[in-house]
Amino acid sequence: MKLFVNDLTVMDFSYLCPRRGMVGESWIVDIILDGGLNEESMVQDFGIVKKQLKKLIDEYVDHKLVIPADYEGVEIAHDQTQGRVSVDFTYHKAQQQNTSIHLLCPPEAYAFVYAPEVDMASVTAYLKDVIKTHLPENVQGIEILLRAEVIDTPFYHYTHGLKKHDGNCQRIAHGHRSKIVIIEDGQRSAARENEWAKRWSDIYIGTREDLVSVQQLQLNTQGISDQTHYCFSYEASQGVFEMAIPKHACEIIEYDSTVECLAQYVLETLSEQSDARYRVSAFEGVGKGAMIGNE
Fold this sequence. Notes:
alpha+beta
């Protein structure tokens, strides 16, 4: 007997890619359990499946930075004295130089996938290894189906960190795959949406007050400078987070990078460029976001 749960959860996370750098992503999770019936004549109670499996997925992937631990261009070191993990990652993007990313964060900020690349196959294998140890005896198999939201309009991949957040959003590198809807003088503007989709393609959105100089970082600063990288550091309830990322992969804003502030930032930028009236709907992953206008 097979029990399926579609749309179990959405994983909002970021990962390091050998070709793209740091990528914000949102994947929808479907689950199929294969097993015999238990004493309640069920494979498993839907309420238990939804609660327990979603909790595991949230714990091991959601709002983390996923690292391809077997990629030749990554170095991982555990600092037992500080209780933090450093990651140094070099990627190769066409026509770009200074393509290295450096982090020093609490271990909870990462998920390590033992594969040369993070993709749906490697993350599926990682999750199956995690979940199968928590299944009841009557469940013999599990299928995990990951998929991206079908978006037929412009979208972008962004990464950020929210140091004021009490939960896992405080992690300095987690992200989303998000569409954007821009109404200009009462009409949907594909041109404006495409501009922002291109502008925020594989972008890190940083808050200016979190910027520090290279000299202020404790992470590995070899080969980076204030001319090539933006450096961030902040302390939140889960610990101290540090990151250095190439300037060409980053946009600095004056606000916190909540979706509400991002919608406001897009509106203010558009209003500086034109006297038109706008309404901006900025999404944060799948099916949620913030809306603002000057209509």
